[in-house]
Write a structure and sequence with these properties.
Length: 222
């Protein structure tokens, strides 16, 4: 079973959670035939390249019950849907500017009965409310994400890690993160996973203080 890779890295999942994880492949295979949200070469490696990649965030931080998260540019539901399975007592709001991608996320979440998840066809600048954390996977440059979301991060703390941005990125980020020097942390996913796919993958974390400080310093350059 391909989902065994998830069980090996997350052995404490409940049977209920394992069942939901197991169903992801058939659900995404079905919907990907109708609405292409995952490349054909990746659909057979869904658990490694999409589900496990999303769950790197669950290795980075254990969100406390009641935490709220915005998944920016979720596509077909990553990282939001795997995280919503693993953190059933947290609230997730998934957004994307492409309506057909949100439809896939909504249908998968409905099939899995994820009552802690909502999805919306909208842009980051239009989403309402504030969130403890904003998560995103390969959506845009960090500077642009900060410009869109710096005012969407709640000042009220629930977790040991300060509220902020948790971004899944890859490759050489030296130039992209130059403006944030000293304000972010970079964590290699090889700290968590041994597969070759993760050799160039990272988590970039910026706290609420860092995002607001950097945004005010950027002026109109974002």
């Amino acid at each position: 079973m391909e989902s065994e890779i998830i069980r090996s890295y997350f052995p404490h999942l409940s049977e209920h959670q394992k069942i939901k994880i197991d169903r992801l492949h058939s659900l995404y295979t079905f919907w990907n035939r109708k609405i292409n949200v995952i490349s054909r070469k990746d659909i057979d490696r869904l658990y490694e390249r999409h589900v496990l990649h999303s769950l790197a965030i669950a290795k980075f931080i254990r969100f406390k019950a009641g935490s709220s998260l915005l998944d920016l540019g979720t596509g077909g539901g990553f990282p939001g849907i795997p995280l919503a399975i693993v953190f059933p007592q947290c609230r997730f709001h998934l957004i994307d500017a492409v309506s057909k991608k949100i439809r896939v996320a909504e249908e998968v979440a409905r099939s899995l009965e994820l009552t802690n998840l909502t999805a919306e066809h909208t842009g980051a600048e239009k989403v309402k409310g504030t969130f403890d954390f904003i998560v995103a996977r390969a959506v845009a440059k960090t500077k642009q994400i900060v410009a869109w979301t710096h005012h969407k991060i709640s000042p009220t703390q629930k977790n040991d890690l300060k509220n902020g941005l948790i971004l899944l990125k890859g490759g050489d980020l030296t130039e992209e993160l130059k403006a944030f020097r000293g304000s972010y942390t970079e964590t290699a996913l090889t700290n968590y996973f041994k597969e070759d796919f993760f050799k160039t993958k990272k988590i970039i974390y910026l706290s609420i203080k860092s995002t607001q400080k950097n945004f005010s310093g950027m002026g109109n350059k974002c």
